[in-house]
TrEMBL record:
Leader sequence residues: none
UniProt keyword list: Cell membrane, Glycosyltransferase, Membrane, Transferase, Transmembrane, Transmembrane helix
Parts of the chain that traverse the membrane: 241-262, 274-299
GO annotations of cellular component type: plasma membrane
Annotated compartments: Cell membrane
Species of the source: Parvibaculum sedimenti
GO molecular function: glycosyltransferase activity
Recorded topology in the membrane: Multi-pass membrane protein
Pfam family, one: Glycos_transf_2
Protein's UniProt name: Glycosyltransferase
Amino acid sequence: MIDSRRGGWTLTDLISVVVPFFNEEDGIDNLFIEICAAFETIPNSVFEIICVNDGSHDLTLAKLLNHASGDPRIKVIDLSRNFGKEAALTAGLDHATGDAVIPFDADMQDPPNVIAQLVEKWREGYDVVIARRADRSSDSYVKRSTAALFYRAINAISDITIPENVGDFRLMSRATVDALKLLPENCRFMKGLFAWVGGRTAEIEYVRQPRNEGNSKFSGWRLWNLALEGITSFSTLPLRIWTYFGGITALFTFFYALFLIVRTTIHGVDVPGYASILTVVLFLGGVQLMGIGMLGEYLGRIYNEAKRRPSYIVRKVYFQKSLEHEAA
Ligand code: UDP
Ligand code: MG
C-alpha cells in the first residue's frame, strides 16, 4: 500500500501498551478483551501488552500468566515486590519494544478505544500525543481542587510545564522512550520526566471513566508524597526561598533594633513586651524548623540518588517463548 507520509510504503507499526498492575485481579480478563478489540480498529498495526506485576498479593500474577500462555502478544514482568506505580511504569517502558509506547492503567479509567485516536495523531508525525481529560467528574471534589493547586504550584516554580488534566495515559514515539530511558534518576516522577523530555506534541481530548473494579491505590498521603516528589525533582525554589525570607527578616530586625535604640535613649528602658517577644521567638522558631525540614526533603532525595539503587528489581520476565521453553 502506498502512503506518501511514510516514504512511499505503509509499514506495520508495533505498538506497546504498558500496564502496571497492583492487586487488579478482578479487571484483568476484561482489560485484555477490550485492548484486543481496540486494536482491531487500527489498521497496519500489531501490538504487545507489557504487563508489570508490581508486587500484587492477590491472583493478579496467576491471571496474567494464564493470559500470557495463550497469547504471545502478552508479556509479563514480575517485580520482586511493590515498588510503586512510577517504578512499575519505568520497568514497563524499559521492556517495551514498540515503535510507539502507551502507558495504560489496569482499571481502564482511560477507555481503550482512545488508543486509535492516539495512534492516528502519532502517524501524522508527532513524537508525543497526550490525552487530556475533558472533565474530571469521575474524581472527587477534593482530588480535583488539590490537583489544580499542585499543577499551579509546580508550573509556577519549575522550568518545565506539566500539562494539567493529563495523566500517564499518552503515546510516545520510540525516540521519546529512548530519551526517557537515558534519564538516570531513580526518584521517578513520570509526569515531570515526560514533560522534561519534550518532543513535538499533539493533544487529544477524552472523558475519563470511574474505576471499573476495586479502589484507587492512591490515598491522600500517597498523593501528597507524589506531589512533594514532583516539586523537589523539578524545582529548587523551596530550598532557595529561605535565603530571601531570612534576608527580609534580618532587614526588618535591623530597623527594629535601630528603632529600639532610639526609643530607649529617649524614653528609657521599657519592661513590658513579654507577649511580643514570645510571639516573634515562636514564629521564627517555626520558620527555621520549616527551612530545616525543606533541607531534609532535598537531602533525603540526594541520599537516595547517591546510593544509586535501581528503581525496581525484576523477579522474572515471562513471555510465551520462555513458557514453552519451561514446559519442554
Ligand atoms: N499501581 C501500581 N503500583 C502501585 C499503585 C498503583 O502498579 O503501587 C497501578 C494500578 O494497578 C493501576 C495504576 O497504577 O493500574 C493506577 O492506579 P490507580 O487506579 O489506583 O490510581 P488513580 O487512577 O486513582 O490515580
Ligand atoms: Mg485509576
